[in-house]
UniProtKB/TrEMBL annotation:
Membrane topology value: Multi-pass membrane protein
Entry-linked PANTHER family: HYBRID SIGNAL TRANSDUCTION HISTIDINE KINASE C, TWO-COMPONENT HISTIDINE KINASE
Annotated protein name in UniProt: histidine kinase
Modified residues (4-aspartylphosphate): 622
Span of domain Response regulatory: 573-689
Species per Swiss-Prot/TrEMBL record: Massilia yuzhufengensis
Species classification: Bacteria, Pseudomonadati, Pseudomonadota, Betaproteobacteria, Burkholderiales
Cellular localization per UniProt: Cell inner membrane
Length: 692
């Protein structure tokens, strides 16, 4: 049946008459002769070699005349490998069944020495009496597989070396697609990133042979068809050997034929359950892609992405560093802005004496500038709370109209100062939403302030609201400087700013819109920006879940503190303790002006000593004082005779939820942020006066 063995004749010539063979050898020889897989038998004390047709490929030129090989001792036929194979055959003759994978040998075949790899298993064959007399070996040459793997590794190493020092994604794409395309002899290799919506992809770069068209551009995943798209999303490679035979028009055939492609490998890259990138190899004729070629493309796209992520991470770090540097410079500028008029106002106070008109003007200036500084600092604190996950919303059901009214009231002075027209388009019927009223009002105030600052005087600002399905939609539009298309995607990023000259002239830290996005997201909503371009105005749209069941806002509980102490009430004995001498003295002066008796201390121990003599009814304590901090001073004061009911106020620059929880646990009755607002101060005084 075979080229070597047409019968048992050659075997009987080598091993003697057939009737002398044990049944185990007859069975082994019969199985070997009928098998297509390379097999040989080494029999007897000299391990005489018998083989089948499949083994002839491994023998090479030695198999040209079977009489020169068949029936000869194995060590003579394969003397080059006897030092490796001999011990294996000897172990098998001792009863072992062995398996060896991808063993490396140097063989002389067809007149040339060459490196060869083979996998094989050996098992013993027993003679008539039961003793082991031979070895059956099933083998296969794996030289082609190993060389393919080596070539693949060399290509991956070349790609790694070419991209190792690349400092931009385009260079990585260029090297990777070119090396892969040349290795595979492909028509085109394209690299694509998925857009944020995960429904579109952008081919950033493609390598192609001369005459092939470029595919760089943005496309919809729907072009692949629903089945292929769903597979790509979960990381399954799209493998097409013949576009016309395997694809329907709606499943990608039209797309590939438009660019002259008949075969394709498209390897997706999925990270954390999300499709992030793809690499596609195109061929202009049908092609039966091998498993090794597919595995190679998958390995290249994975390595390419790793290098691109590395470069993008470095770019992001450099960009973040640049933005932070600009932010710090802007912060210094913005803090100097209010400090300059405050310093000038102080000089005017010194020169003007007690002129009432001048005093009133200076007071207004200082109030506005301090409010501006407090606003800047509060924005920074809010961003820090949100970033650390410590922002708690006080959600209640309200009519959106009341929130818009509050935001407009806050922003109206800035709008009027810019001589802008303000238009409100809000339906008369209630729009109920479950929100933190203060925070949503803050969001709208930020958007109105931005609109006012970046609209040339006089301009027009429009606030509109309505419902769309289950959402409440709020839009703040202006006729201002607009936003360039390339900047729309990053206006909500931290430290993102308009052109530097505008920011400096109008004011701003570049965190307002980032704060807007975070606060809206905390409410389960979204905010987007749109603009027709520079000079064409901007529009910011907020979508929030609509409260489907209407409700009325509960009235404020009775007994809420007012803004000032009740008139006609006697003054309080107040202790003020702060290691900042100016802060302590100015607060004491203000309290005395309000009719209270005040003692001042400049550290914790001094506060306790003063409290033992003064017996205050209320104490304002800075938390970070030397010698004894505010917490220790609070405990010591409360332990003094007659001070068990002392009202304690923490006066600090720390205002996070955990800071307030700590002061409450330490026994403080109130927590005021520096600088304390007049309203907050009056509320504390009123609450203590009421309890007298």
């Amino acid at each position: 049946m075979g080229v070597v063995f047409r019968s048992f004749d050659w075997a009987s010539t080598a091993l003697g008459a057939l009737d002398t063979w044990p049944q185990s050898l007859r069975t082994a020889v019969s199985m070997m002769l009928s098998a297509r897989h390379p097999m040989y038998i080494a029999w007897g004390p000299d391990l005489l070699l018998l083989y089948n047709d499949g083994y002839r490929e491994i023998l090479g030129a030695k198999s040209a005349d079977p009489r020169q090989v068949l029936g000869r001792p194995f060590c003579e036929v394969w003397h080059e490998v006897w030092d490796v194979v001999g011990p294996m055959l000897a172990a098998t003759l001792q009863g072992d069944t062995l398996w060896f994978e991808d063993q490396e040998f140097t063989l002389t075949r067809n007149g040339f020495a060459e490196q060869v790899f083979a996998s094989f298993s050996t098992s013993p064959i027993r003679a008539e009496a039961g003793e082991i007399a031979g070895v059956l070996c099933v083998c296969s040459e794996t030289t082609g597989k190993i060389r393919s793997q080596q070539e693949r590794l060399r290509l991956l190493d070349a790609i790694g070396e070419a991209t190792r020092l690349a400092d931009e994604p385009k260079a990585i794409m260029d090297h990777s697609t070119r090396l892969l395309g040349e290795y595979l002899g492909a028509t085109r290799v394209a690299y694509a990133d998925l857009e944020e919506d995960n429904d579109r992809f952008t081919i950033r770069h493609d390598w192609r042979v001369e005459g092939a068209i470029s595919t760089v551009g943005e496309y919809s995943l729907d072009l692949f068809g629903s089945r292929a798209t769903s597979n790509l999303r979960v990381g399954r490679t799209l493998l097409i050997n013949d576009v016309d035979r395997e694809l329907a028009a709606q499943d990608g055939a039209d797309m590939f034929n438009q660019i002259g492609i008949k075969a394709i490998i498209c390897c997706p890259l999925v990270k954390q359950g999300r499709l992030v990138a793809m690499m596609a190899v195109h061929q202009q004729q049908p092609r039966n892609w091998s498993a090794d070629e597919v595995a190679l493309v998958e390995a290249v796209v994975d390595r390419c992405w790793a290098h691109i992520e590395r470069v993008r991470s470095m770019e992001a770090l450099r960009e973040a560093d640049r933005r932070k540097s600009e932010f710090l410079a802007t912060l210094a500028h913005e803090l100097r802005n209010p400090l300059a008029p405050i310093r000038t106002a102080l000089e005017l106070l010194r020169l003007s004496g007690d002129k009432p008109q001048m005093l009133e003007r200076v007071r207004g200036t200082m109030e506005r500038q301090v409010d501006q500084m407090v606003h800047l600092i509060n924005d920074l604190l809010d961003i820090a709370r949100i970033s650390s996950g410590k922002m708690d919303l006080q959600v209640k059901r309200v009519d959106l109209q009341s929130v818009i009214a509050s935001a407009v009231e806050t922003s109206l002075p800035l709008i009027e100062a810019g001589r802008h027209a303000l238009a409100l388009d809000v339906p008369p019927e209630p729009l109920w939403i479950d929100v933190d009223t203060v925070r949503l009002s803050q969001v709208l105030s930020n958007l109105l302030s931005n609109a006012s600052k970046y609209t040339t005087e006089p301009g027009r600002i429009t606030v509109s609201a309505g419902t769309r399905g289950d959402s409440v939609v709020i839009e703040v539009a202006d006729t201002g400087i607009g936003i360039a298309k390339q900047d729309l995607g990053r206006v909500f990023e931290m430290f993102s700013q308009a052109p530097h000259s505008i920011v400096i002239s109008k004011g701003g830290l570049g965190i307002g819109l980032s704060l807007v996005r975070h606060l809206v997201t905390l409410h389960g909503g979204t905010v987007t920006a749109s603009s027709a371009g520079p000079g064409q105005g901007s529009s910011f749209t907020i979508r929030l879940p609509r409260a489907l069941e209407t409700a009325t806002e509960a009235p404020a509980p009775a007994g809420m503190a007012g803004n000032a102490a009740p008139s006609g009430q006697p003054g309080l004995r107040v202790l003020v303790a702060d290691d900042n001498v100016d802060a302590a003295d100015t607060l004491a002066f203000l309290l005395r002006e309000k009719g209270h008796e005040v003692r001042v201390a400049y550290d914790g121990e001094e506060a306790v000593q003063a409290g033992a003599v003064f017996i205050p009814e209320l104490a304002f304590l800075d938390l970070g004082m030397p010698r004894m901090d505010g917490y220790g001073a609070a405990r010591a004061l409360r332990a003094l005779p007659g001070l068990g009911n002392l009202g304690l106020v923490a006066l600090t620059g720390w205002g996070a939820q955990e800071d307030r929880a700590r002061t409450h646990a330490a026994g403080f009755d109130h927590h005021l942020l520096k600088p304390a607002s007049p309203e907050g101060l009056d509320a504390v005084l009123a609450s203590v006066t009421k309890e007298k």
